[in-house]
């Protein structure tokens, strides 16, 4: 009997019918021994619950009327994150005028279906409403704290965990903070946000959430680790770290992923995998999902996993088919791998104490990012709009190498584009160059980067690439 069938058996088996006769008792004992192992969890939420964890998804309010979508979401998941509806631009479109209509829609759908909710996100350099983007200094600091207080108070008692601060660290080798208007109010803005959130909703777990902090050897991971360690030492209220875990071939599931989870957990915080998606298909994608789920199961304080959308077609990276259901809502190989791992994978239950190995007191040496060689070879670049909303849009730019391949690329964004949020690329002025890991593109092959644009989306779809 596996640990999981034991847990299910002891927790759920109905009581034996009353019987006095010894013969019946003997029969009952035999029957108890002969009871077949209970069926494994048949949905992600059921299988995860048996391991003391939750399994969640991001939900977009405007998709809830799609019955294929809502049926899968309701059947498979028991933790819900609003993909965009609780962000700063959605909840405070004008200063001190709060709008909870779409966030509440998701909360109500979740609650009426017996699910819990992760709040995402109280303070972030991106997706700030227009009025906040224009602010700096003490007035921005107090506007941010007011936002945290008001939104956390509105949802008080209804949120399992809040992403209090999202994506505050810089990519690359610095291990330091990202520049932003919030950071320029003073680097204690993060702890101020956590204190305000705790005061407003003492029951919610308070998380720091970021991407590219999955690899333990990365400077960014180490920077976040040092902040969390400092917060725990000084009593700043923090309960969890969210690893977004957006993976693709350029940014794969790292071999030391479990070390990262263990190391954060050893600081005395929960770890939640908050925005999981893994680009790819078939058995390779399934194996990557299996590794992520197994790493979480192996660490008792890894308390839940959320995938960033339901079907591939619902994803912010739809072309990378990164989710567990295809566009028709069919279960993919990745789904089966996740379910099987939850049902059968090894690992301690949630009550096992965390590993006792002390975390390193000095961070391991970080490998400096490779210096980008000058671009060579011709390429083309095509821009598509993945998503848009009043005042902004999300764009994907596909860079395709010509016949000689590329060792680094530069793409010039169309005139009028304004962005402070680029991923898989580095921006300087209106020019985006490759990230350290995606400059090498074989002849005829493609890579891509994305950005969040402010204002209206550009009409140009063909960009200059060199
Ligand atoms: O999936 C979200 C997409 O619909 C939005 O256009 C985008 C705008 O910022 O945000 C996406 O979600 C992001 C999340 O809020 C924070 N981590 C990265 C996610 C993917 O970009």
UniProtKB/TrEMBL annotation:
Keywords: Carbohydrate metabolism, Glycosidase, Hydrolase, Polysaccharide degradation, Signal, Xylan degradation. The keyword Signal applies. It comes from Cellulomonas chengniuliangii. Residues 1-39 form the signal peptide. InterPro entries: CBD2 (IPR001919), CBM2/CBM3_carb-bd_dom_sf (IPR008965), CBM2_carb-bd_dom_sf (IPR012291), GH (IPR017853), GH10 (IPR044846), GH10_AS (IPR031158), GH10_dom (IPR001000). The keyword Signal applies. The active site is at residue 275. Its EC number is 3.2.1.8. Residues 38-341 form the GH10 domain. This is Beta-xylanase. Residues 350-376 have a biased composition (Pro residues). SMART domains: CBD_II, Glyco_10. It is an enzyme of class 3 (hydrolase). Pfam families: CBM_2 (PF00553), Glyco_hydro_10 (PF00331). It catalyses: Endohydrolysis of (1->4)-beta-D-xylosidic linkages in xylans. Residues 372-466 form the CBM2 domain.
């Amino acid at each position: 009997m596996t640990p999981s069938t034991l847990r299910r058996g002891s927790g759920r088996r109905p009581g034996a019918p009353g019987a006095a006769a010894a013969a019946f008792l003997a029969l009952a004992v035999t029957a108890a021994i002969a009871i077949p192992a209970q069926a494994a969890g048949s949905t992600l939420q059921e299988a995860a619950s048996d391991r003391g964890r939750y399994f969640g998804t991001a939900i977009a309010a405007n998709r809830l009327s799609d019955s294929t979508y809502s049926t899968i979401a309701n059947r498979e998941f028991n933790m819900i994150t609003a993909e965009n509806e609780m962000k700063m631009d959605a909840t405070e479109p004008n200063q001190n005028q709060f709008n909870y209509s779409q966030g509440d829609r998701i909360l109500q759908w979740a609650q009426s279906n017996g699910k819990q909710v992760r709040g995402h996100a109280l303070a972030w350099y991106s997706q700030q409403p227009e009025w906040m983007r224009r602010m700096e200094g003490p007035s921005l600091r107090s506007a941010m704290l007011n936002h945290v207080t008001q939104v956390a108070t509105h949802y008080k008692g209804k949120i399992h965990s809040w992403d209090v601060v999202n994506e505050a660290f810089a990519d690359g080798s610095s291990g330091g903070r990202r520049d932003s208007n919030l950071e320029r109010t003073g680097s204690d803005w993060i702890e101020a946000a956590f204190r305000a959130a705790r005061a407003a909703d003492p029951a919610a777990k308070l998380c720091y959430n970021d991407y590219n902090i999955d690899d333990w050897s990365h400077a960014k991971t180490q920077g976040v680790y040092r902040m969390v360690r400092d917060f725990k030492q000084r009593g700043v209220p923090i309960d969890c770290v969210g690893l977004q875990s957006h993976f693709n071939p350029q940014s794969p599931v790292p071999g030391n992923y479990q070390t990262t989870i263990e190391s954060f957990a050893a600081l005395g915080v929960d770890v939640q995998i908050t925005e999981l998606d893994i680009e790819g298909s078939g058995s390779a994608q399934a194996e990557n999902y299996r590794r992520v789920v197994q790493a979480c199961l192996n660490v008792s304080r890894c308390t839940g996993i959320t995938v960033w959308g339901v079907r591939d077609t619902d994803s912010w990276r739809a072309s990378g088919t990164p989710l567990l259901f295809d566009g028709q809502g069919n279960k993919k190989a990745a789904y089966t791998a996740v379910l099987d791992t939850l049902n059968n994978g090894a690992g301690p239950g949630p009550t096992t104490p965390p590993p006792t190995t002390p975390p390193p007191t000095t961070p391991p040496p970080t490998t400096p990012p490779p210096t980008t060689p000058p671009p060579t070879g011709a390429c083309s670049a095509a821009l598509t709009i993945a998503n848009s909303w009043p005042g902004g849009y999300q764009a994907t730019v596909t860079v395709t190498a010509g016949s000689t391949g590329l060792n680094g690329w530069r793409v010039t964004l169309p005139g009028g584009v304004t962005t402070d949020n680029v991923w898989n690329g580095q921006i300087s002025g209106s020019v985006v160059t490759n990230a350290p890991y995606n400059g090498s593109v074989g002849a005829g092959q493609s890579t891509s980067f994305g950005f969040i644009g402010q204002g209206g989306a550009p009409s140009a779809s063909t960009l200059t690439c060199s």
